[in-house]
Structures are given as C-alpha cells and as structure tokens.
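The material for today's practical consists of a large collection of protein records. A record pairs a protein's sequence with a compact description of its fold. Instead of coordinates, the fold is spelled out as a row of discrete tokens. We will come back to this pairing of sequence and fold again and again. Here is such a record, shown just as it appears in the course material.
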Amino acid sequence: MMKNRNPKYICSALIGVILLCTGCESFLETEIPNNKISSVTVFENVETANSAMRGVYNELFRAYYSYGGRNSVTVIAGISGNTLQTEVLDNNLIQFEQYAINPANSYNYNIWASAYKMIYQVNAILEGLEASGINVATKNRLMGEASFVRAFTYFYLVNLYGTVPLILSTDYRPNATAGNAAVSSIYEQIIADLEFAMSKLGDDYTEGDRSRPNRFSAMALLARTYLYTENWSMAAEMSNQVISLNTHYELLSDLNEVFLANSREALWQISPIGSASGAVHTNEGNLFIRADNATSSVPVSLTENFLNSFDDRDLRYQNWVDVYTLNEREIYFPYKYKIQYAPSGSIVEYSMVLRLAEQYLINAEANAHLGNLKAAISGVNTIRERAGVAAITPSDLQMSEESILQVILQEKHKEFFTEWGHRYLDLKRIISLQINVPNLEQEQLSRLYPIPEQELISNPNLEQNEGY
C-alpha cells in the first residue's frame, strides 16, 4: 500500500493518476492554480477523463506486477510454478525458486506495492466519475474499465497473498490501517466489479484497440473467477458465452499470430504504445530473447521438466520455444513474442493478458467437475488439435474425472507458459481440490507469498501469512 499518506501532500489521489499519464500534457497545461488538479476539473471534461484512464493502461505496461519483465507476476510466478529457472545470480528471484521468500524481498514488495498503486489509481477514477457530469455513455464506459482493472488486480493479490486489505476508496485514513480481508470478501468484490463492468462496457473495443477491455473481457475474467471459486456451473456458462462469440474472437491456426497487437484471439492485451518505453517492444520479448551479440545469458530460461512435457510434434513447442547456446550449453527460452526491440512507431506485438484459448480450458475443467466428461474432453481437444497434437478419447482416460483434470491442467501448462503465472496458480488450486500431481512438494506450493515486511511495519493491523 502507499507509504505517503500525509494529507499535506495529498490534494487529490487523482494527481498521481494524471502525472502517470503519458501524453497528458494537455492536463498539465490547463490553468489550475498551484498545479493542483481537482477531480471536478478532470472529470467534467471527456478528453481529460479519457486521458486519466489511458494513464492507467500506460501504467500497466510499467507497473511491476503487470509489466511482464523480471519483477513481474509472469516471471516470479513462472519460477514458483517450475516453468522458469534462474540463469543469473539474482537472490530475489532465487528465493522464489527455492520457496524460501524473505518478507523483505524487494521483488515481492514491488509486486504488492505496484498492485496497490494501481488500485488507488482506479479508485480515484471511480470516485471522480461518480460525481462527474460528462455524457452518460463515456462515464459508463470509463467506470466499467476502471472496475475491470480493479477486479483484475485484486484477482492476483488474493491468489498470491491471500487475505489482503480490501481498499475501495482513496481515503488514506482507513486505508492506512486496513487489516486482512477474508478471501471470500475479496472474491465477492471481484465478482461485483466484473458484473458492474459487464453492465457498463460495450461489445466493441474503444478505438478498436484490444488494450481497452470490453464487456467480453470482463466476462472472460468472470469465468476464470468462478472457476477459482469452484462455482463450476457459472464458470461453464460464462466461458460458453465467450466461446460462442465467433464474430469477435477465434483460435488462430497460425500460432505465430496469436501475440500480435489486436490479435483476434485476444480478449485483453497491454500495449507498449504511449508508455515512453523507447525501443522496447513488449517487456516479455525484451526479457526472454537474447540479443545476437550478447555475451551473457538472459535472466531466466525454461526448465527441463517443463520442456520434457511436450510431444515433439507439438506446434507450441515448435513455435513458442527457442534455444541459444552459451558455453556449450543449450538454453531454451520462451519465444511467444518474437521481437526484442523495435524502432519507434513499429509496434506489432502487445503483451497478452486474456485470450480465447483459456476459455476452452475453463469450460473443460468446469464440465469435468460437473460430470460432463464428454464436453470436458471436447474442450481440451480443441486446444490439442490447434497445437497439432492427437485428440484424446474417452477410452484414453477411462472416463474418470481426475484423469481428465490431469490432462486439462497439463494442456493449460503447455498453452499458457510464461503468461501470468497460470501454472503456479493452478498448482495451488489443485492442492485444495485434492488432485494428485506427481513430484510436487504440496506444502511448499500451498504457501502464499509473504506480506512485505515494510507493510507490516507501517500497518500493525496486518497479519503475516503462515510460514513466515
């Protein structure tokens, strides 16, 4: 949570939002005494209100938890899930690899702090819009987008840290001493935010860009949330609705087109455009790909255990994994993003956050739990067939729920490696579902990340997670 809570320095939480906007010079050029920007000023103008929300998306490309780089959920949870391994001496990363995270770990703090910074930003936007007199259509869309981002951010906080503070306003007084909220309460808020977003967002993407969520982005995240809360029937229903939207989305047959900007498989992406990132394309491409003239390793690589899970014919292995040789050792790396650097103005890839393929596997898992085993097999086969892997049959699995769930989770690992820590979060879930997975230290995997030491010092009402 934010450290500077002194009211002397807080004229409005919106100031932080505005200053984070890239390309928001028009905000700062308006004649506002003492450089103070009030919520009334910002949200009584459609252009500046839109710019405030654009600032949120620009910040998602930079914020530690969401930016896709070395200190992101993608990398840290990828290491915790045994998909990635460290290739350099980085004690912060190694602690996640060894399941021995010090509460003072700076990467852990950065995940937490950047997520709460984002929550403060969208809370400020929601509060400003609530009192705004701008046209109803714009107001509804922006409130829907802000609620969606808040739900998305809390989804990762609750899954990585468990009982985190539930902050729904910009009022520093109660926020400074907020205690641990129950996991059930956090999920209730996530669901409420997503239902609200669905009621306010339209079917089309703002300006045709999939970095701004639409109604179906919220529906997709809601399907995942229902899966995580074991509401199997609603998970199946929501994912079915998304899958049926074939005029908006499709599973792309060419795997090298999946991660392009505004891909038809994308439900929501993060754009590097407007982030003042210089020559960097996606942060994932910048991190995982080794420059041709490099003399050292990239920070992380794919684990042998994960690589061995692929069939040689799997198109995901052929298209999304690459290798370089260093000191006579082959090092395999994720190659979903093909571009490490790009000249200004030539961005062709966006960072993927939500995509259609997940909805098929959500639907398959939900149906397996509901006893609809044929439907579950059909869903997972859609993903396998796109990957060039033979379809499974009921006889292959002896039609048992656990065997089907095993296959679904394996396919999900191969489909979503290095995308937002899916494997790690799934492993934590399956422990509670009592699904057997060989070679897993279940006690370690069931452990949450520690609440950062700095937060415990500043807020005596917070309790540390078990095991730290």
The two ends are 19 Å apart (CA to CA).
